[in-house]
């Protein structure tokens, strides 16, 4: 029996291609962003550079998983002259969940790094956040196995997962609230925007999870892959860029010259140092 509703329907050419294109765009966006993060990491002071390195890891990891999803999508369905119907293999979203076990800890840790938390404090907060995230993912993974066979189980596991999600958001909100004043270079307000972006992007994943419950159709499947793609780009790429921006601003405020240069705070030929 299939685990995911993607395998239940036939797709019009437009529906099939829309999903194919969304997945392919996701691959391209993550690998392009990888180049961006590699290039800008030299403007980030060494004490924040791990935050940008973590974005590189997230880009690679998500880029490869999406490459796999996009191949799997085109292998799983075959054109029968009118529609695309299920063929040799079956499609699964489960790979995404497994990937989150790696990417979410990276995303959370990079936030803690730019919050200027120190040694033991980072370790303590990261442990709580990662455990909550893993709890959320594992229960969500189990839940999605039931999306075809038993919607009640999908909803119950989803509710348990949401409890972990709430704990996670609560801890992140608190960390930001308490430590915001320790940020350099007026980035205390940018970090709230990061939190807002995170709340928006991360909430798209549970909506995608619930599609089998409220839109069990081929169009629902297209909507799900669209939500996943928007969520991926905002929660990893745009988020990573904001984190790196905060890292560069703080680097400059703390006197790191390459950061000052890229922000035009000092000239190349005439040194108008601001500190
Ligand atoms: C699940 C199950 C249903 C309930 C909730 C979920 C939350 C998922 C989230 C995923 C975030 C993923 C990210 C990936 C980045 O690479 C597991 C769908 C609340 C929040 C940020």
Give an overview in words.
The chain is mostly helical and 275 residues long. The chain has one domain: Up-down Bundle (Rhopdopsin 7-helix transmembrane proteins), CATH 1.20.1070. It has helices at residues 13-40, 46-76, 94-114, 119-144, 151-179, 188-209, 211-214, 218-253, 257-262; strands at residues 77-79, 84-86. The longest helix has 36 residues, at 218-253. The radius of gyration is 21 Å and the shape is globular. It starts with 12 loop residues before the first helix and ends in a 13-residue tail after the last helix. The chain binds retinal. Retinal binds at residues 62, 100, 103-104, 107, 136-137, 140, 143, 158, 161-162, 165, 202, 205-206, 209, 235-236.
Question: Which molecules are bound in this entry?
Answer: retinal
Which assembly state applies to the chains in this document? Answer: single chain
Structurally, the number of domains stands at 1
* Named CATH architecture: Up-down Bundle
Record the strand order, biggest sheet.
Answer: 1-2
CATH H-level superfamily title? Rhodopsin 7-helix transmembrane proteins
Q: What summary fits the major beta sheet?
A: 2 strands, antiparallel
In short:
It is a multi-pass membrane protein. The protein is mainly alpha-helical.
Q: How is the topology of this model organized?
A:
Elements: H1 13-40, H2 46-76, E1 77-79, E2 84-86, H3 94-114, H4 119-144, H5 151-179, H6 188-209, H7 211-214, H8 218-253, H9 257-262
Antiparallel strand pairs: 1-2
Helix pairs in contact: 1-2, 1-8, 2-3, 2-8, 3-4, 3-8, 4-5, 5-6, 6-8
The structure holds retinal (RET).
């Amino acid at each position: 029996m299939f685990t995911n509703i993607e395998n239940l329907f036939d797709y019009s050419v437009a529906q099939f291609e829309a999903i194919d294109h969304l997945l392919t765009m996701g691959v391209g966006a993550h690998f392009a962003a990888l180049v961006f993060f590699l290039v800008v990491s030299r403007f980030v002071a060494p004490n924040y550079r791990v935050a940008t390195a973590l974005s590189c890891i997230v880009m690679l990891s998500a880029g490869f998983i999406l490459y796999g999803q996009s191949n799997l999508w085109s292998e799983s369905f075959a054109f029968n002259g009118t529609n695309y119907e299920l063929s040799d293999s079956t499609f699964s979203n489960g790979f995404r969940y497994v990937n989150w076990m790696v990417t979410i800890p990276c995303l959370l840790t990079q936030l803690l790094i730019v919050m200027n938390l120190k040694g033991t404090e980072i370790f303590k907060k990261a442990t709580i956040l990662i455990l909550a995230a893993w709890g959320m993912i594992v229960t969500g993974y189990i839940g999605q196995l039931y999306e075809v066979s038993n919607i009640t189980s999908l909803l119950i596991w989803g509710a348990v997962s949401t409890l972990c999600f709430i704990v996670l958001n609560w801890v992140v909100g608190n960390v930001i609230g308490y430590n915001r004043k320790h940020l350099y270079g007026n980035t205390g307000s940018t970090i709230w925007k990061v939190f807002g972006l995170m709340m928006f992007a991360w909430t798209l994943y549970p909506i995608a999870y619930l599609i089998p419950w409220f839109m069990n159709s081929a169009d629902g499947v297209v909507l799900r892959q669209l939500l996943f793609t928007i969520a991926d780009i905002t929660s990893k790429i745009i988020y990573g860029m904001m984190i790196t921006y905060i890292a560069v601003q703080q680097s400059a405020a703390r006197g790191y010259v390459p950061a000052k240069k890229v922000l035009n705070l000092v000239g190349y030929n005439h040194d108008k140092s601001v500190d």
